[in-house]
């Protein structure tokens, strides 16, 4: 998957970000192997005529970039706070540990529910 994402410009039949390549007349074509398919679009097209294979490959690049970026950010912050707590010790260490204890006391599901409730779109009345 990583190799497919890295080589997406070479593997993808079209560039999904290039509006000049999108043709609305190619919208909602089925994947190859079904009736009405076009060999130029192996996985078919969406409602706007974009090639699904190209969209998946380029979308994988974005997803991997966000995932790796999050891991790097967590590592940098974790190392920074760990070094800070270890070097300064005492009161700073105690404060950072209490913050870590509070953060660890929240389950992932509870955080998801709270975020969903806070950012829930207001229903039209």
Structural summary, described in words:
The chain has about 120 residues and is mainly alpha-helical. The chain has one domain (about 1-120). The protein has five helices and no strands. α3 packs antiparallel against α4. The radius of gyration is 23 Å and the shape is elongated. About 5% of the residues are buried.
Distance between the termini: 45 Å
Estimated helix fraction: 55-70%
Write down the secondary-structure element order: HHHHH
Biggest sheet record: none
Tally of individual helices:
5
Unreliable segments of 5+ consecutive residues:
none
Tally of strands: 0
Shape: elongated
Rg estimate, integer Å: 23 Å
The count of domains is 1
Amount of beta strand: under 5%
Structural class: mainly alpha
The average pLDDT is 87
Short précis:
The protein is mainly alpha-helical. Helix content is 58%, strand content 0%.
Topology:
Layout: H1 2-6, H2 8-11, H3 52-88, H4 90-105, H5 108-118
Helix pairs in contact: 3-4
Features:
single chain; mainly alpha; elongated; 5 helices; 125 residues
């Amino acid at each position: 998957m990583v190799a497919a994402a890295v080589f997406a410009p070479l593997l993808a039949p079209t560039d999904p970000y290039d509006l000049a390549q999108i043709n609305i007349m190619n919208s909602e074509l089925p994947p190859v192997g079904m009736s009405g398919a076009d060999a130029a679009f192996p996985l078919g097209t969406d409602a706007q005529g974009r090639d699904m294979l190209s969209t998946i490959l380029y979308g994988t690049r974005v997803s991997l970039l966000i995932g790796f970026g999050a891991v790097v950010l967590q590592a940098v912050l974790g190392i920074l706070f760990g070094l800070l707590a270890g070097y300064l010790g005492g009161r700073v260490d105690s404060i950072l540990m209490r913050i870590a204890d509070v953060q660890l006391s929240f389950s992932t599901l509870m955080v998801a529910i709270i975020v969903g409730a806070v950012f829930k779109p207001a229903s039209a009345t």
